[in-house]
Amino acid sequence: MWEFIVQYIKGCVADGETERVNQELDLALRLYCANNPENWAKLLPQFEFAHNQRTHSVRGKSPFELLYGFQPEAAGTVRITPKHPSMEQRLQSLQEAREKTIAAHTQAAAAMSRRLPAAQVLLKLGDKVLLDTKNLRLPYVSWKLIPKRVGPFTIVKVLGPVTFKLKLPEKWKIHPVFHAALLTPYHTTKEHGPDYVRPPPIPTPESTEGAEWEVEAILSHRTRGTQKQYLVAWKGWPASENSWEPEKHLKNAQSVLRNYKKRPKLS
User: Fold this and answer.
1) d(CA 20, CA 11)
2) What is the pLDDT of residues 64-113, one digit of tens each?
3) What is the mean pLDDT of residues 130-158?
4) Comparing C-alpha atoms, which of 246, 170, 259, 261 is closest to residue 216?
5) Which domains does the chain have, with CATH numbers?
6) Comparing C-alpha atoms, which of 104, 109, 135 is closest to residue 36?
7) What is the pLDDT of residue 165?
8) Which helix (H) or strand (E) holds 155?
9) Is the model's pLDDT at 155 over the cut of 90?
10) E strand or H helix that includes residue 111
11) What is the Cβ-side half-sphere exposure of residue 12, based on CA atoms within 13 angstroms?
């Protein structure tokens, strides 16, 4: 169960917007607490208040406004006339802490934006992209053989400046929202131009019933009930089209199946 939760969090990237906010908060905390590394915990309430009072770049409102419907006054902005020097000093300290937090947030947001290549920031609805596989659990025999990127996939919804929803294969069953850092614009080539379609069925040497999709490799196997299934990579098709097939579907790929079964610790 724990492994599933960890993989789910990674797969969501974590919904890309959340990951970006988490990274921004992490960087802002580092900047804010740089001069106070020993009492950083005492600074957290001020940091939290300043964060919740800050206007969100996507929604145009602060978390306070979205949650409560109004923007509360910061302690340093309360209009009172202090009667004790220590109170005045405390209010001044709170105001300075708030200003430092806002400055740290602004600096962190700018740093996060600079990390993204211009091509990723300009992604838009309908674009085709390649998806980075570093957080995906793809069923390959070895992680060293997993392609760096898979796709292309179409952007079906823009959720924010750097957060996009993709149209993924139904059998993937993962959260389809990703941060732009995991996406690479897909470009056609001279060989495979805009009208390029995936290869048609390829006649296999063992086929006696006409053209069918050729098995390029068998990558893994599993048992479902009493039936053994094999993960098949189809020749000329991207890894996103790999599928689990029962052995009876591989009657015209016996040589590939025999070679797979000869591998160590396989049967």
Assistant:
1) 14
2) 776 677 777 765 554 555 555 576 776 777 677 667 766 766 666 666 65
3) 74
4) 259
5) 2-115 (no CATH), 121-185 (2.30.30), 197-267 (2.40.50.40)
6) 104
7) 92
8) strand 149-160
9) yes
10) helix 85-115
11) 11
